[in-house]
Amino acid sequence: MGSRAIVRFTSKDIRIGKGFRLRFLKRQDFDTTIEPEGSKCGGIIVGQTGYLNYKLGKDYLNNEGCVWLLHSPGSVSVHLQLIEDEFEICCDYISVNTVDPETGVIRNDTKLFNARNWNQTIEAPLLVILFQSDYSKPGKGFSLQYRSNGNQLNVKYKYKLQHIIGMFGSTEYPSEQAKWEVSGRGEQDIFMIASSKIKIPDKYYTVIDWKFQPPNGSCLQHHSFAIYEPLSLSENETSVPGIWVKREQFPKSNKPDCSSVNSMPTKYNEKFKQTFNVATPVFIILYKSLFDGNNGTETRFKFDYSQKLHTCGGVLEPLQNEYGLISYMEDEYYKNLENCSWTIEVSAAAGIEFGLEKYELREGDHLNVVSIDTGESIDELRQISN
């Protein structure tokens, strides 16, 4: 197929169908890429002392958004010191926020680190650490030292943490496949899922489908679920970069009367399914049960997330060494007489592979791929399971 291709979608003027999801991969015959230590964008860190090293001495990219959840169980505070960095001083930052476990929200208490030897002590055992780079001049990575202080004798909360990265996926609790980092010895559970992206594409937004099964004896108002995404300096010149903004909350209010509570269903129910849109692939999901009778053993939830395109057509590329995705009008009805064209280009040494993951076009509507290099056309795209 070569290293450049055009994906075309056309629809007739008779009946409309639903869209599609087409994955494209950068294919190389000899791929010897090895991810160096400390190059992972985001993750879960549990411990009392150590270093968070990210691309130390190496170039990071424009538009990175990496989230680490750092928990020092039983600690009163955590001291952070930026040991080494070569940031673009004006525009690239490490920001740190804390979580209020009583209310299950991320506090607006952002602390910034963007100069070597900058240090602060933060009064909390759980930190949300975000590294953001802007769209202009990239710099080199960093080393952030952390050291916990103090000892809480009565620990009330147990944190269940997970980090995800990718253009789409699914996770649930409880799960044999999805790894949850369990930290702390308290009886009340707080669930946090952090999503990172090495290269944030401005053509995509994220759709999250949340399914929830409340425990018996509780109602929806006994549970707090919220999605946060970070502001960048370019979004609001007067704001603190890295501040986490609550984009969605479910239920919308905690005021309704819960005195009349029926037994909840034993399986997920459409009544408890909600769909949320988030502007970027960098987000945090925070869930906490406010139900005194639930210690977490009955908690059940699942969410699916995928990044979808805003536009009919454009120029796309794989994100770093990952695949790319054209998710156009997926699960939605497209219009009559649409004519969309996406241009995809990878490095000349590589080729492109395509896999059709979802397809609900009407008869007569058409999706095909044409190689810019060779003129080869693929009219019957290979369908793969997702």
TrEMBL record:
Residues 41-149, 312-386 form the CUB domain. Pfam families: CUB. PANTHER family: OVOCHYMASE-RELATED. This is CUB domain-containing protein. Keywords: Disulfide bond, Repeat. InterPro entries: CUB_dom, Sperma_CUB_dom_sf. SUPFAM superfamilies: Spermadhesin, CUB domain (SSF49854).
